[in-house]
# Entry
Amino acid sequence: MSRLRRTLAAVALSLSSLIPAGFASAADLPVKAKAKPVADLPFFLVIDDRVSFSWMPKGTDPGMFTVNPNGSINGTTAKQVYSFTHFDLWAYGTNFFTISMFKSGHNDPASPCTNAGTIFGVPADCAGATEIYGLFRSTFGWNEIFNTKAFTMGPLHNVSFEVGMDANTENNFLAPAKRDVVAGLQFAFDLPYKGYFNVAPLVYWEFANHNAFDQCGLFGPGVPGVTCLADGNTKYNATWAVETNYYMDLGFLPENMQFWSISGRAAWYGPKGDQNQPLTGLGVGRFSTATKTEFNAEPIRLTFDASKAFIGPKYSHFVDLWVAYRYWQNKFGLDHNASPGVCTIAATGQSTNSCTESTVYGGVTVKF
# Structure
């Protein structure tokens, strides 16, 4: 994001330097001559929209697994991912929005099937679940708000306020419906070769979600608010978060090979209460565990700018081919070493291998 901001800032400065020159030259002309009006800058200085398709061979979904005939556990599922992303830059900051559809294989079944492809113990061959996940992040730069360069020094490019929200829904038996908000600061740093590194310490609050397994009536009448939730809707405590991302062209390569770039991200989200919050361990017994710090990262993505390589620099990043590595521990805050019935088998304590995601995946991104 910072790379685009710097580019447009340079354009804006070059345009602003022309304005006083235009008025000065007009003053030297005869009275009847009129200066040409200066065109207003558009509200959005940059608008960038892209679509992507990627394939993830070893995705996971907590609690979704299969016990193999030899007793081993398969907690992974292939996922097809279809994404739309939007980025824009305006006078005071940036906006980023993305929405993705994850289509799972049979090991992550759609409702009414539960984990291991069963309907309450009866074997079934179910279609894979479909998840829709969206998020946005908006920044408001201090240099822009206060009309200063005081927040640019050395590699630090800017300090910004940051706000955002995440939301998802999935048609599996759990039927999650996550809603969270974040707010804090972003520190933007310059990297070589027109690169950037952003780090954002934030407050994170997952104020709503859904868990069908906590819903009253599934395992008997229960006591609403004590041993079950009347509607299955969970609500977690506010906690801390740190989100980072970076991008850099591989500008050190020979000119005839400068079609490559690297990027990545990493985020940490603190413990947010019990996995069945607002129920406590006393209410849900052995199927209750405190949440843990969640680590969600794509430490590196290698991108090949195919459109620049085959059509020319004018079409840079119109078509990108990329491969990346994804790692997600304590997925959704669930303790991968505990969380009985989800991350471990309650009777034996054996890991279901479904609460940590580690996979190489690749895709294609097209700008329009």
